[in-house]
Structure prediction request, 260 residues.
Amino acid sequence: MQTLKPIIIDETDILKDRIITYDEFMQIFNFVDLKYKILYGLLAITGARPCEVLKLRLDTNFDFSNKNDPKVKIMIAKAEKQEYNNFIKKKQKIVWRPIPEWFMKYLSKYIYETRRSESLFLFPKQSGDTHMNTSSVDAQTAKLRHKMFKHNPKKYEWVLETYKHFDNSYGFKRKCYRFSLYSFRKMHSVLYLKMMQDKGDVNAIVATSKHMGHSDIKTTLKYLAIAINDRFNIEKYGFMNTPPLQELSISQNQTRIINY
Prediction:
């Protein structure tokens, strides 16, 4: 009979100050331009990694055949550890994630504008022959942090909050910000876990771990303390059916989606 080893989570592993709340997400969403609304929105709605969202193509990753149930196809990378040589190997699995109605209006407008270019990537580079990369988007996110703070230091003071400082391999000091490209995936993980808990799923941790594609359930357990925290005691669960705080003026011809 196999003996299960207890998983011990160190206090420093708990991601207390690393997750943005739903309200903080909406502050970001309402501040940025349409392209970054779509990028950050897809990261938060799907829980995918930045590299997985940046690779999305209009011709292969979206299903708009049922206007009442639009979907986006994500290639989720799942790491697998080979015990015999301690080698980490990544596999990919295809998952379809629903696109909520409120977000579809923004996506429709963005696709309408993007189709003016010849690229089929949702986030094309200026050349159009490939997609934007994580480093360039990360750099733009850093600029947005400072732009938000400069616009209203009192309201957006939190965007410059850090939770970790370290020296990288080149000897440069780096800071980890609460508002980063991975903030949205972390928020999705917390809200998904809370949703599964409130539904009474006794295997909420396991379900969340599989949903997020975590290679180690210890990673998922880090979010448990946050899921029961008062500031996440909300019923928005990843805002799948929650309207945004502001509306865009979108004409009828821009709301039509072309099914490739």
